């Protein structure tokens, strides 16, 4: 089961990278169109921050410090930098998940996620 998680996260992060690379011109990553209020670039930053926090830091015990506000306020991050962050996230997620065993997967998540829990 753990191997499946690793494959799925890696597959989907590759898909995210491919989607980010498909933006031409790259400036379109930071455009807001229609009723969508977040840019594709900001959503990419948010996914990276989320995975590095909830899997890398909380499960893998790495030292990542999240700046969630910046995930939505930063603009015009170069496309290559965002792609690099996605690649780093692939490595962080894989390393964290590889440290786990099936018994740990059966445990309750180690951090409180929302105030209502």
UniProtKB/TrEMBL annotation:
It comes from the Bacteria. Residues 79-106 form a coiled coil. InterPro entries: DinB/YfiT-like. Gene3D superfamilies: dinb family like domain. This is DinB-like domain-containing protein. Keywords: Coiled coil.
